[in-house]
Task: structure prediction
Amino acid sequence: MHLLPFYQQTIVLPYEAPETVRRLQRTIRPLEKGVEYAEENENKFLFNGWLKEGRFRISRKVSHPENFLPLMSGRIEGTSVGSILFVRYRMFSSVVMFLIFWSLICLLLSLFFLLVHQETLYALLSFGLGVINYVISTKNFFLQVRSSQKALDKALNG
Result:
């Protein structure tokens, strides 16, 4: 069992590995400082990140902040009849720190109320808020995973 949400996906593609790399590369905006793209070029990018030597680390390009946007990493391997794309979706480090921090705060508050003040109601309330925070964070992460999967499918199939 994993405490932090993540998702793994294997995509079998009919394209040869170089074609898969080409299709994915044209939709990734490189993370280079000081490089500006024309508006029409900027609109064709679906992802930010990099793709090198069959490995990639990308995130979906968004127009407004998405706190639970997944970081997609993986590799492309060629097969005799096409290619296989192994993708792992995980939370960004800052979101993981947010989730762990507030979960610990809620747990410690719960223990404080239970052990120091013998206030069961406040302890349950603190613990419940921590659980609600975790559930909402996890659900939002998986909603963003679905959106990223759609963008990846669009990049690969067109």
